[in-house]
Amino acid sequence: MCHLLEGVALVTGGGSVLDINVVGLRETKDLVERIRRVDVLQLHVDLAEENSIISGVQRAVDHFGSIDILINNAAIAGAIRPSTDVATGDFGKIIDVNLIGLWVCQREAIKQMLKQDPIKQRIGPASRGVIVNLSSTYGLVSPPGGLSTPAYVTSKHGILGITKTDATSFAKDGVRINAVCPGFVNTPAIKEAARASPLVQDEEKKVPMGRFGEPEELAEVICFLASPMSSYMTGTSVVVGGSSSEEPGNRQQNPASSNTEKPNHPGQRNTDWDAPAAKVLSPSKLAHVVLRTNQLGPMVEFYKSFLGAKAMYENDMLAFLTYDEEHHRIALVQIPGTKDKDPQSCGLEHTAFTYNSLTDLLLAYRQRKQKGILPFWPINHGPTTSIYYKDPDGNMIETQVDNFEDADEATLFMMSPSFAENPIGVDFDPEDFIKRLSAGESEAELQRRQEIGPRGIPSFA
Ligand SMILES: NC(=O)c1ccc[n+]([C@@H]2O[C@H](COP(=O)([O-])OP(=O)(O)OC[C@H]3O[C@@H](n4cnc5c(N)ncnc54)[C@H](O)[C@@H]3O)[C@@H](O)[C@H]2O)c1
After folding, report:
1. Ligand 1, atom 23: nearest CA belongs to which residue?
2. Where are the alpha helices (H) located in 207-261, listed in sequence order?
3. So where are the chain's domains?
């Protein structure tokens, strides 16, 4: 379909002509030049910066003299977590790139297109320019709960809004603007996610066509929308999701999306139970921890207080405690004959609970202190800033905040020489951190681990 395209095309992201990724830019240039005899200009542009976009578009116009096609492809996804775990700044970063950056590109391209003389097309009326915006099926519906990316989904919904609005405004000027809504497409990042996450693997099984799309299958639809073949289409979106409707396959199978539809039971899927598997399907999450105790009352009171939890059920033998959507996160069971804990024996070393921010971690620390619950070890491990406690039986509990934006960044740190030298961490004083936060020092600054050289595993038994 690409042979139908003529003129100057500006493509954001994908290591294409407008991208923040310099290596990707070079690779894409080499690839495109090998496939077709085209003149490629790489522009290092940050879509989070308005001036960077404006000057990038201007440099393209200075070089080629026009912009006939704009493919707004670049985007960032952000970490998978529900809104309650997303900081305002992180939400804003994604909106800045995916929605505002896309809109600025679109605005600057339209300004240029309106200056250009309409070009006669092989099919349809003369055109001043065409824009194709990359939204997503998550621009139409919500991902299932376990794949929640609120800012990404908001940006992809917003892209459809700005596509329709500007398409209507500039329809009579000969500028067409449409969007594509891909389902999962086998780009390297998605392949990696599918390898790592059973939730993503599950999504593939829910697609009516039974597979994720290939990048070429998406590219063909983008070329169609950018070509005169779609001359009577503007302000619309095309779903490329292996599904017969705009509803991705997961919609019917996500219990949270409807209270009338049946939940997806694994037995209802067309599963090949005997297919050879290199790896066992991982669970979707860790559900709870059950602790055996010989002092149920004090342990229940401690955990209620420590976690701000409540009992979903309790009697004189057991208690199920929760503080979130799970029916129980900690269960305590008093079995006759249970001996005191031997801290030197094998078994669970500690459980860990995550807070959304350093401020929350320290606030909980202060609130526990008011209740007489004191930590025994505050430490910046590198990937996390952590405060450790012991329960009345001597079980260790870590409370923590992630120091990095996402798991990838944390993994990179864990592969660094600093982590190899000191995989344990650096102690800190929570009271000192509270003082410094109150004085205006940033969370990020406090969470950056100061390097102290080699350190071994301490014993708290
Ligand atoms: N792959 C999928 O399964 C899928 C599904 C639905 C929608 N989409 C959409 O399709 C598009 C392409 O997806 P992909 O999988 O190829 O993504 P990708 O992550 O492989 O590529 C995104 C590109 O955007 C660039 N980028 C990121 N931040 C930037 C910034 N601030 N300034 C300039 N460039 C920046 C990156 O360098 C990268 O080259 C995206 O809009 C994505 O949301 C993809």
Report:
1. 13
2. 215-226, 250-253
3. 2-247, 289-447
